[in-house]
Design a protein that fits this description.
Strand content: 5-15%
CATH topology of the largest domain: TIM Barrel
Helix content: 40-55%
Bound molecules: 3-methyl-2-oxobutanoic acid
Strand order of the largest sheet: 1-2-3-4-5-6-7-8
Largest sheet: 8 strands, parallel, barrel
Number of helices: 12
Shape: elongated
Structural class: alpha/beta
Radius of gyration: 24 Å
Order of helices and strands: HEHEHHEHEHEHHEHEEHHH
CATH class of the largest domain: Alpha Beta
CATH superfamily of the largest domain: Phosphoenolpyruvate-binding domains
Number of strands: 8
Length: 281
Protein backbone atom coordinates (compact mmCIF):
# COMPACT_ATOMS: atom_id res chain seq x y z
CA UNK A 1 0.00 0.00 0.00
CA UNK A 2 0.99 3.64 -0.30
CA UNK A 3 -0.44 6.86 1.02
CA UNK A 4 -3.68 8.03 -0.57
CA UNK A 5 -3.56 11.41 -2.31
CA UNK A 6 -5.87 14.39 -1.84
CA UNK A 7 -7.64 13.25 -5.01
CA UNK A 8 -8.41 9.87 -3.35
CA UNK A 9 -9.77 11.72 -0.33
CA UNK A 10 -11.85 14.11 -2.46
CA UNK A 11 -13.30 11.27 -4.50
CA UNK A 12 -13.80 8.79 -1.64
CA UNK A 13 -16.96 6.75 -2.08
CA UNK A 14 -16.97 5.35 1.46
CA UNK A 15 -17.10 7.34 4.71
CA UNK A 16 -13.70 8.91 5.43
CA UNK A 17 -12.08 7.79 8.68
CA UNK A 18 -9.79 10.28 10.39
CA UNK A 19 -8.15 10.42 13.82
CA UNK A 20 -5.78 12.91 15.34
CA UNK A 21 -2.25 11.77 16.15
CA UNK A 22 0.84 13.51 17.47
CA UNK A 23 3.63 10.96 17.98
CA UNK A 24 5.56 8.23 16.18
CA UNK A 25 4.46 5.04 17.97
CA UNK A 26 0.77 5.86 18.04
CA UNK A 27 0.98 6.78 14.35
CA UNK A 28 2.59 3.42 13.60
CA UNK A 29 -0.31 1.54 15.17
CA UNK A 30 -2.90 3.73 13.43
CA UNK A 31 -1.16 3.30 10.09
CA UNK A 32 -0.90 -0.50 10.46
CA UNK A 33 -4.60 -0.97 11.22
CA UNK A 34 -5.36 -0.37 7.57
CA UNK A 35 -8.80 1.19 7.88
CA UNK A 36 -7.80 4.74 8.62
CA UNK A 37 -7.89 7.09 5.61
CA UNK A 38 -6.48 10.22 7.20
CA UNK A 39 -4.36 11.26 10.18
CA UNK A 40 -4.67 14.82 11.43
CA UNK A 41 -1.86 16.35 13.45
CA UNK A 42 -4.27 18.78 15.06
CA UNK A 43 -3.38 21.75 17.21
CA UNK A 44 -5.49 19.93 19.81
CA UNK A 45 -2.01 18.65 20.72
CA UNK A 46 -1.86 21.81 22.88
CA UNK A 47 -4.27 20.16 25.33
CA UNK A 48 -3.59 16.45 24.98
CA UNK A 49 0.20 16.52 24.53
CA UNK A 50 1.43 19.79 26.03
CA UNK A 51 -1.02 20.47 28.86
CA UNK A 52 -2.25 23.89 27.72
CA UNK A 53 -5.86 24.81 28.43
CA UNK A 54 -6.54 25.88 24.84
CA UNK A 55 -4.97 25.64 21.38
CA UNK A 56 -3.87 29.28 21.44
CA UNK A 57 -0.31 28.74 22.79
CA UNK A 58 0.51 26.13 20.11
CA UNK A 59 3.21 27.38 17.71
CA UNK A 60 4.24 26.51 14.17
CA UNK A 61 7.39 24.89 15.65
CA UNK A 62 5.18 22.61 17.82
CA UNK A 63 3.14 21.67 14.75
CA UNK A 64 6.18 20.93 12.58
CA UNK A 65 7.86 18.89 15.36
CA UNK A 66 4.83 16.64 15.94
CA UNK A 67 3.94 16.37 12.25
CA UNK A 68 7.47 15.19 11.44
CA UNK A 69 7.28 12.54 14.20
CA UNK A 70 3.99 11.21 12.83
CA UNK A 71 5.27 11.40 9.26
CA UNK A 72 8.18 9.07 10.12
CA UNK A 73 5.63 6.33 10.89
CA UNK A 74 2.96 6.84 8.27
CA UNK A 75 3.08 4.72 5.12
CA UNK A 76 -0.56 4.15 4.17
CA UNK A 77 -2.54 7.09 5.48
CA UNK A 78 -3.14 10.63 4.22
CA UNK A 79 -1.41 13.13 6.53
CA UNK A 80 -2.84 16.55 7.35
CA UNK A 81 -1.43 19.19 9.72
CA UNK A 82 -3.11 22.17 11.33
CA UNK A 83 -2.19 25.82 10.90
CA UNK A 84 -1.83 27.08 14.50
CA UNK A 85 -3.42 30.23 15.99
CA UNK A 86 -3.10 33.40 13.83
CA UNK A 87 -0.65 31.80 11.38
CA UNK A 88 -3.17 32.44 8.59
CA UNK A 89 -3.72 36.04 9.72
CA UNK A 90 -0.11 37.19 9.43
CA UNK A 91 -0.12 37.79 5.69
CA UNK A 92 0.45 35.72 2.59
CA UNK A 93 4.18 35.38 3.08
CA UNK A 94 3.83 34.04 6.62
CA UNK A 95 0.99 31.72 5.55
CA UNK A 96 3.02 30.32 2.66
CA UNK A 97 5.95 29.89 5.05
CA UNK A 98 3.79 27.92 7.47
CA UNK A 99 2.46 25.65 4.70
CA UNK A 100 6.00 25.16 3.39
CA UNK A 101 7.27 24.10 6.82
CA UNK A 102 4.35 21.75 7.52
CA UNK A 103 4.81 20.05 4.15
CA UNK A 104 8.60 20.21 3.62
CA UNK A 105 9.81 19.72 7.19
CA UNK A 106 6.74 17.96 8.61
CA UNK A 107 5.78 15.77 5.66
CA UNK A 108 2.11 16.82 5.67
CA UNK A 109 0.19 16.28 2.42
CA UNK A 110 -2.34 19.02 3.18
CA UNK A 111 -2.90 21.78 5.69
CA UNK A 112 -6.05 22.52 7.66
CA UNK A 113 -7.00 26.12 8.38
CA UNK A 114 -9.71 27.19 10.84
CA UNK A 115 -12.16 29.88 9.75
CA UNK A 116 -13.87 31.05 6.59
CA UNK A 117 -13.96 34.22 4.55
CA UNK A 118 -11.15 35.98 6.41
CA UNK A 119 -8.72 33.34 5.07
CA UNK A 120 -9.91 33.27 1.47
CA UNK A 121 -7.00 35.21 -0.03
CA UNK A 122 -4.43 32.92 1.61
CA UNK A 123 -6.35 29.75 0.74
CA UNK A 124 -6.64 30.78 -2.94
CA UNK A 125 -2.93 31.57 -2.99
CA UNK A 126 -2.00 28.19 -1.43
CA UNK A 127 -4.33 26.25 -3.73
CA UNK A 128 -2.88 28.17 -6.72
CA UNK A 129 0.53 26.91 -5.63
CA UNK A 130 -0.70 23.30 -5.32
CA UNK A 131 -1.03 23.16 -1.55
CA UNK A 132 -4.12 21.09 -0.70
CA UNK A 133 -6.15 22.92 1.95
CA UNK A 134 -8.83 21.54 4.25
CA UNK A 135 -11.26 24.04 5.79
CA UNK A 136 -12.66 23.98 9.34
CA UNK A 137 -15.96 25.62 10.32
CA UNK A 138 -18.46 25.44 13.16
CA UNK A 139 -16.68 25.34 16.49
CA UNK A 140 -13.19 26.61 15.75
CA UNK A 141 -11.26 26.17 19.02
CA UNK A 142 -8.69 28.85 18.12
CA UNK A 143 -11.55 31.37 18.50
CA UNK A 144 -12.24 30.39 22.11
CA UNK A 145 -11.42 33.84 23.53
CA UNK A 146 -13.96 35.42 21.16
CA UNK A 147 -16.57 32.64 21.54
CA UNK A 148 -16.41 32.36 25.32
CA UNK A 149 -17.12 28.62 25.44
CA UNK A 150 -16.83 25.43 23.41
CA UNK A 151 -20.56 25.21 22.60
CA UNK A 152 -22.57 23.98 19.63
CA UNK A 153 -22.45 26.46 16.71
CA UNK A 154 -24.84 27.32 13.86
CA UNK A 155 -28.08 26.68 15.74
CA UNK A 156 -29.91 29.91 14.91
CA UNK A 157 -31.19 31.18 11.57
CA UNK A 158 -28.54 33.94 11.50
CA UNK A 159 -25.66 31.58 12.29
CA UNK A 160 -26.84 28.90 9.84
CA UNK A 161 -26.74 31.56 7.11
CA UNK A 162 -23.23 32.58 8.17
CA UNK A 163 -21.84 29.03 8.17
CA UNK A 164 -23.43 28.49 4.73
CA UNK A 165 -21.77 31.62 3.33
CA UNK A 166 -18.41 30.65 4.82
CA UNK A 167 -18.64 27.08 3.49
CA UNK A 168 -19.50 28.14 -0.08
CA UNK A 169 -16.76 30.80 -0.02
CA UNK A 170 -14.22 28.18 1.08
CA UNK A 171 -15.40 25.79 -1.62
CA UNK A 172 -15.05 28.58 -4.18
CA UNK A 173 -11.52 29.28 -2.91
CA UNK A 174 -10.58 25.69 -3.69
CA UNK A 175 -10.49 23.74 -0.40
CA UNK A 176 -10.45 19.97 -0.86
CA UNK A 177 -12.53 18.98 2.18
CA UNK A 178 -14.27 20.69 5.08
CA UNK A 179 -14.17 19.77 8.77
CA UNK A 180 -17.43 20.65 10.52
CA UNK A 181 -17.10 20.75 14.29
CA UNK A 182 -19.93 20.82 16.80
CA UNK A 183 -22.84 21.83 14.59
CA UNK A 184 -26.41 20.47 14.57
CA UNK A 185 -26.81 17.29 12.55
CA UNK A 186 -29.26 19.06 10.20
CA UNK A 187 -26.53 21.58 9.33
CA UNK A 188 -23.96 18.79 8.86
CA UNK A 189 -26.34 16.84 6.67
CA UNK A 190 -27.56 19.71 4.45
CA UNK A 191 -24.08 21.17 3.95
CA UNK A 192 -22.82 17.70 3.02
CA UNK A 193 -25.58 17.47 0.43
CA UNK A 194 -25.07 20.96 -0.97
CA UNK A 195 -21.28 21.11 -1.18
CA UNK A 196 -19.25 19.43 -3.92
CA UNK A 197 -16.52 18.30 -1.56
CA UNK A 198 -16.33 15.86 1.34
CA UNK A 199 -17.31 17.04 4.80
CA UNK A 200 -15.61 15.48 7.81
CA UNK A 201 -17.64 15.82 10.97
CA UNK A 202 -16.71 15.99 14.63
CA UNK A 203 -19.95 16.40 16.51
CA UNK A 204 -21.74 17.17 13.23
CA UNK A 205 -23.94 14.07 12.81
CA UNK A 206 -23.93 10.89 10.77
CA UNK A 207 -24.51 12.38 7.34
CA UNK A 208 -21.07 13.97 6.96
CA UNK A 209 -18.84 12.20 4.43
CA UNK A 210 -16.39 11.27 7.16
CA UNK A 211 -15.75 11.44 10.88
CA UNK A 212 -12.77 12.66 12.89
CA UNK A 213 -12.06 12.33 16.61
CA UNK A 214 -9.22 13.17 18.97
CA UNK A 215 -7.78 9.72 19.73
CA UNK A 216 -7.21 10.37 23.44
CA UNK A 217 -10.95 11.15 23.74
CA UNK A 218 -12.18 8.04 21.96
CA UNK A 219 -9.71 5.79 23.82
CA UNK A 220 -10.67 7.17 27.23
CA UNK A 221 -7.36 8.83 28.11
CA UNK A 222 -8.77 12.34 28.55
CA UNK A 223 -10.82 12.74 31.70
CA UNK A 224 -13.50 15.08 30.31
CA UNK A 225 -14.83 13.95 26.96
CA UNK A 226 -17.35 15.86 24.85
CA UNK A 227 -20.82 14.31 24.57
CA UNK A 228 -20.40 13.65 20.82
CA UNK A 229 -17.47 11.27 21.45
CA UNK A 230 -17.99 7.52 21.70
CA UNK A 231 -15.46 5.80 23.95
CA UNK A 232 -13.75 2.75 22.42
CA UNK A 233 -11.17 2.18 25.14
CA UNK A 234 -10.27 2.75 28.77
CA UNK A 235 -6.67 4.00 28.37
CA UNK A 236 -6.76 6.06 31.54
CA UNK A 237 -7.70 3.02 33.63
CA UNK A 238 -5.18 0.77 31.84
CA UNK A 239 -2.40 3.29 32.44
CA UNK A 240 -3.46 3.87 36.03
CA UNK A 241 -3.51 0.08 36.70
CA UNK A 242 -0.16 -0.43 34.96
CA UNK A 243 1.60 2.35 36.90
CA UNK A 244 0.05 1.12 40.15
CA UNK A 245 1.13 -2.51 39.52
CA UNK A 246 4.68 -1.37 38.63
CA UNK A 247 4.94 0.63 41.88
CA UNK A 248 3.68 -2.30 43.95
CA UNK A 249 6.02 -4.80 42.29
CA UNK A 250 9.05 -2.53 42.89
CA UNK A 251 8.08 -1.77 46.50
CA UNK A 252 7.46 -5.49 47.19
CA UNK A 253 10.79 -6.38 45.54
CA UNK A 254 9.07 -8.65 43.01
CA UNK A 255 10.44 -6.78 39.99
CA UNK A 256 12.69 -7.49 38.15
CA UNK A 257 12.55 -11.31 38.26
CA UNK A 258 15.60 -13.31 37.13
CA UNK A 259 14.24 -13.66 33.58
CA UNK A 260 14.07 -9.86 33.48
CA UNK A 261 17.75 -9.57 34.58
CA UNK A 262 21.17 -10.35 33.01
CA UNK A 263 23.87 -12.80 34.26
CA UNK A 264 27.65 -12.82 34.15
CA UNK A 265 29.54 -15.53 32.18
CA UNK A 266 28.58 -19.02 33.37
CA UNK A 267 31.94 -19.89 34.94
CA UNK A 268 31.74 -16.88 37.30
CA UNK A 269 30.10 -17.31 40.71
CA UNK A 270 28.57 -14.46 42.72
CA UNK A 271 31.47 -14.78 45.20
CA UNK A 272 33.92 -14.34 42.37
CA UNK A 273 32.07 -11.28 41.12
CA UNK A 274 32.22 -9.80 44.64
CA UNK A 275 35.95 -10.54 44.92
CA UNK A 276 36.62 -8.86 41.57
CA UNK A 277 34.64 -5.80 42.55
CA UNK A 278 36.30 -5.61 45.97
CA UNK A 279 39.70 -5.73 44.33
CA UNK A 280 38.82 -2.78 42.14
CA UNK A 281 37.78 -0.66 45.12
O1 LIG B 1 -7.02 20.14 16.34
C1 LIG B 1 -7.76 19.19 16.12
O2 LIG B 1 -7.57 18.08 16.62
C2 LIG B 1 -8.90 19.38 15.23
C3 LIG B 1 -9.92 18.30 15.18
C4 LIG B 1 -10.65 18.22 16.44
C5 LIG B 1 -10.80 18.41 13.99
O3 LIG B 1 -8.99 20.39 14.60
Amino acid sequence: MSRPSIVDIREAREPITCLTCYDYLTARVMDEVGGLDMILVGDSLGGVMLGYDSTIPVTIDDMVHHTAAVNRAVKNTFLVADFPFLEAALGLERGVGAARRLMQEGGAQAVKIEGGERNIELIEHLVDHDVPVIGHLGLTPQSIEALGSYGVQARTEKNIKIIGEEAFALQEAGISALVLECVPEEVGSELTDLLDLPTIGIGAGLECNGQVLVWQDMMGLTDQIPTFVRKWGEMREWLYDGVNSFCQAVKNEEFPASEESFSVDQQLSSEHVRELLLKSR
